[in-house]
Specification:
By secondary structure, this protein is mainly beta. It has helices spanning 2-20, 340-348, 350-354, 360-371, and strands spanning 26-27, 43-50, 65-67, 70-75, 79-84, 89-93, 109-111, 118-122, 126-130, 136-141, 149-155, 158-163, 172-177, 183-188, 202-207, 210-215, 220-224, 230-236, 258-264, 268-275, 277-284, 290-300, 303-308, 324-328, 331-338, 380-386. It has one domain: 6 Propeller (Neuraminidase), CATH 2.120.10. The relative contact order is 0.14.
Length: 387
Amino acid sequence: MRFSILFIVFFIACSCCQKKNKVLIEFDPRYLNEKSIKLSEIADDISYIILDDSVPIGFINSNIRYISNSIFFSVLDIGILEYNRQGEFKKKIGSIGRGPGEYTSYVDFTVDEKSGTVYIRDRGGIIIAYSEMGTYSRSFSLPGIADHIRTIELKDSRIFVFNYLQFEGVKYSWIVLDTLGNIIYKKERSEAMFTSEFSGSYGTYKYKDKLAYWNSYNDTVVSISPDLNTDGSFLITPGEHRLPKSEVEISDLSQYLHIRQIFETNRFFIITCTYKKPSLVLIDKKDKKSYLSFLEVERKGITSDIVGGLENDFDGGTKFMPKGYFEENGREYLIGLVELFTLKTHIAGSEFKNIIPKYPARKAELESLADNLKDTDNPVLVLVRLK
């Protein structure tokens, strides 16, 4: 009996030491090898969902939510739209405007998987809630605590509010609310106060039972567990390539790392960023190898988007740019979008005609799909199922 107790104490002590000495995977954009990886090396299926043209869609922001049988998009000049898995339009969430129950900013939003409630971060530190039917429910703000909200996320029916760090007087890195706007928890910042001319980039992602958070000024991607404890999950190497925590004149922002998106799968950390050049980086968790694909910036009127991605040798389609991740029935999926014009132009070109993909029959299916698309159709959602 005494031996058993001693063994348990020893096991717990060893476990704590291992956790304390945990070595994080590190990302340094200055020393990436130009080694690419093809889609068929990480995926075993690809499918295309045509979004119906009930509402003509222009520019879709990168915040795509795939929840249960619904897909949510933030669309420029239109607002938040919901589609079902077959690509059929379901409804619009609220309305753009300055009246009661309307929003003026809607790029940043999140959805409660249990209730279907949509929460939108509007200007002025206001969070607006819309019911599952898409109608206004309530709104709340947090003066003095979250005046400088950068992004919001919802996990386990709790709203996580993450603040800008570079404004004077920001006391909390993040706070947690219930769905009525009551404060559950406040995380005081561990960083020294600083001011900067640059807002930097901030973001969140969900993986397993944790919520991860990152920003341009911190070195560690922080993982928040259900009990609100935190742990490092990924390290962004410090150095002269990081945005300075000061008000300095910068003539060329490309000399600094700008992260657009980070998310995680069972096998990879996936990073979309700009350092010298726009890039898509996959880092294998097991062997620490990195795979790099250079991207291009495409201007779209007053907006711009990153195009390119992984070479699609699966069916010969356009390069795949992952914009999101979800799990379903024990399988992992990456989400992408392809513009109608881009898809049709690619399939009509000589490169597609001459390519012999891994699955030639799937190439024929893609060609047939493109031939049946009208010039007025909306973008196509791409789902890639990971191995």
